[in-house]
Write a structure and sequence with these properties.
Length: 143
């Protein structure tokens, strides 16, 4: 069994039909990394670009410790972070790495959008959005 690919940024290649993880820390406008206790909700959308076709039913899906999402305290993360820092990981399963284009393509871009509701460091509710794009590489074209 191959290892699950963990990515944290843009321009990552993911083989079609594979499991992969997205990992990040959420940062508020002030530049402070959100504490685990500040996060109230995490909602995900996953679609193919450029047409916006929804992938695997991920439309406004609650991923705050559900549906493959996990928010843990920094020391429990891999690699470990500072205590109190919230580290988010989303396990994307093979159904999240499918080519939905009707054209014969060698790859397709997918867009993962996360919307986080949290309590600001100084108090009050706020929302941030994180978007990451990655390439799903078609295995049908590999011989």
């Amino acid at each position: 069994m191959s290892a699950i690919k963990v990515f944290a940024g843009q321009d990552t290649d993911v083989p079609e039909g594979s499991s992969h993880e997205y990992q990040c820390e959420f940062v508020e406008a002030s530049g402070a990394v959100l504490a685990i206790g500040a996060v109230q909700t995490i909602v995900a959308w996953l679609d193919a670009l450029p047409n916006g076709t929804t992938i695997n039913g991920r439309v406004a899906q609650n991923v705050h410790n559900l549906n493959g999402g996990s928010l843990v305290d920094g020391p429990s993360a891999v690699p470990p972070r500072a205590a109190g820092v919230g580290v988010f990981t989303l396990l994307l399963d093979p159904g999240d790495a499918v080519i939905v284009s009707v054209n014969d393509v060698s790859y397709e871009y997918h867009r993962l959008t996360l919307q986080v509701t949290y309590t600001r460091t100084g108090g009050g509710a706020a929302t941030l959005t994180r978007e990451v794009r990655y390439r799903v590489i078609s295995l049908a074209r590999i011989t």
